[in-house]
Write a structure and sequence with these properties.
By secondary structure, this protein is α+β, with helices and mostly antiparallel strands. It has 16 helices and 21 strands.
Length: 541
């Protein structure tokens, strides 16, 4: 153990979401003791002291903290962006450190307990019931649609909307797979826009440090494709939401100590209602990145001071906007990633976070931990911040390995409710697609071992329309992305004769583009090339 004369802070988690806490604590002159269950956690090397301990292992973490207490002292314990606030509270109680009551942390970690606290205090939240592995799939005490989710997980894992009794059993099974306790909550679905709130709690006082618009897509799941800070909500509506948030934080018992609170709330036709509240700062880049970029205030510093049992006086808000946007993939395996350096160099882009690498398996996201990456921007105007984040996310392109069963299955299921088609075609354009010619491979390929020449049969009803994919790309922008990735010119021709030494891409190509966006179309071309090379006895191009 390295000698250190100052104060020590125990931080749970050594991943990207804990990076600001580790860095800021060290800037504050604190000795950082960091634990994580992954010995190769990305931020472990930034810590003054790192030990591999499962974050569920309260006893092991307490023992480490006690060791530091006996050898120079330990001043606090905290986490950010993990679902282990209960471990933090338990360790703090056992070691006599500042924190929130353990019971309060349990209330904020278990959605069943959370809903009961809200109900008892009259805090607006949906009606609910719970199921376990042994529970029969009973009739619900309220109507559909509902939301099914594990009581003890985060990031949208196992969480989905259910519209009928027939869908319920499968959704319960899925949610139970993500529940550590074997318990699932079913609650009324809340209509309306969603917002996230971060706050620092200091002995009864709640200081809001972030209020963001959340951008949720892809039902029946709830995939956050980004958030924007600050919200565009009116002052009156914001006050109404915060009033409910404050009541929820108090009902859980978080205000009895020192800590943080993160809430997801909706503005429903019945007024503001709470989705859930966690006893920690948010993940999803909000507390560590977008709020500091927008406001100029490091909320993580406030959370560290709370863990030390000290007050915090943040400076004035600088009044900027910060936007976070995600980029995703259809199912398959990553072959290459394009556009990262260009995105990072754009004006107003602050960060590009990548969650996948070459050879990584990817899927269409069913929760918020299966996205491929995120772009974060900041600018003095909302338009500039949002525009560059969205454009940069569109320009990061993921090419998939050819001949993958997962990708083939996805592309063959066009028109499915989930995962959705990249382009939702009006019926008249879909009918036009069904009448396009089918491409044929020529009898011979020009230029020997060189890449064959590809041309595209025209589909003007699609390329000339204003429809956009789920990332905001027009059909023409997707064609440009395909050309960038493949290096092929891919001209759209009128009457190229089939059977020549040119491969003319027809209906199947356009089907792949409609279903899987630029990725589907590139995969289609790459699979043709791969199969041609197998026939020639060559390696895949």
């Amino acid at each position: 153990m390295k000698k250190f004369s100052g104060e020590r802070l125990l931080i749970l988690g050594a991943g990207v979401m804990q990076s600001p806490a580790i860095s800021i604590a060290r800037e504050m002159g604190l000795y950082t003791v960091v634990v994580d269950g992954d010995p190769r956690a990305s931020e472990a090397t930034k810590a003054d002291y790192f030990e591999c301990i499962d974050l569920k292992d309260k006893v092991g973490i307490k023992a480490l903290g006690r060791k530091f207490q006996f050898h120079g002292g330990l001043s606090g314990v905290m986490t950010a962006g993990t679902d282990f606030s209960a471990t933090v509270a338990w360790v703090a109680e056992k070691l006599g450190l500042p924190g929130i009551p353990y019971e309060a942390a349990l209330n904020a970690s278990n959605k069943d307990r959370m809903r009961r606290c809200f109900a008892a205090a009259g805090v607006p939240s949906p009606r609910f019931t719970t199921f376990t592995v042994k529970s029969p799939v009973k009739k619900l005490p309220f109507g559909f649609p509902v939301v099914v989710k594990p009581v003890d997980n985060m990031g949208g894992r196992g969480c989905r909307r259910v519209n009928s009794q027939e869908e319920l059993a499968a959704a319960l099974t899925e949610a139970l797979d993500f529940s550590r306790s074997g318990k699932v909550i079913v609650e009324e679905f809340m209509e309306g826009p969603e917002f996230s709130v971060d706050a620092i709690v200091n002995k009864g006082k709640i200081k809001v440090c972030g209020f963001a618009d959340r951008h949720i897509f892809f039902p029946p799941y709830f995939i956050e494709m980004g958030h924007t800070m600050p919200s565009t909500l009116s002052g009156t509506e914001t006050k109404a939401i915060l009033k409910v948030f404050f009541a929820g934080v108090r009902s859980l018992g978080i205000t009895a100590g020192y800590g943080a609170a993160k809430g997801d709330l909706k503005l429903t036709p019945r007024g503001p209602m709470i989705g859930e509240i966690a006893a920690r700062l948010s993940g999803g880049y909000m507390s560590g990145w977008t709020y500091p970029y927008a406001s100029g205030v490091e909320v993580t510093r406030g959370a560290i001071l709370a863990a030390l049992g000290r007050p915090w006086a943040p400076g004035p808000d600088q009044g900027w906007t910060s936007a976070e946007r995600a980029f995703i993939s259809i199912p398959g395996k990553v072959r290459s990633i394009h556009g990262l350096d260009h995105a990072r160099k754009k004006r107003y882009v602050k960060n590009v976070f990548l969650r996948v690498a070459e050879r990584s398996p990817v899927q269409f996201p069913e929760n918020n931990v299966t996205k491929c990456g995120n772009v974060i921007s900041a600018a003095s105007t909302r338009h500039a911040a949002v525009n560059v984040a969205e454009k940069s996310a569109r320009e990061i392109l993921i090419r998939l390995e050819p001949d993958q069963p997962e990708t083939d299955t996805f592309l063959a299921s066009g028109g499915a409710a989930f995962p959705p088609d990249a382009y939702r075609l009006p019926e008249n354009i879909r009918r036009s697609l069904a009448h396009l010619p089918i491409q044929q491979l020529p009898e011979r390929i020009r230029n020997g071992d060189a890449l064959p020449v590809f041309e595209i049969y025209p589909f003007p009803e699609f390329t000339g329309c204003k429809i956009r994919d789920y990332a905001g790309r027009s059909p023409r922008e997707s064609l440009d992305a395909i050309r960038i990735i493949t290096g092929l010119s891919l001209p759209i021709i009128e009457n190229s004769p089939f059977g020549s030494d040119v491969i003319v891409l027809g209906r199947f190509f356009w089907n792949a583009l409609v279903r899987g966006g630029y990725q589907g179309a590139v995969y289609f071309i790459d699979t043709i090339l791969n199969n041609l090379n197998i026939e020639r006895g060559q390696k895949s191009v």
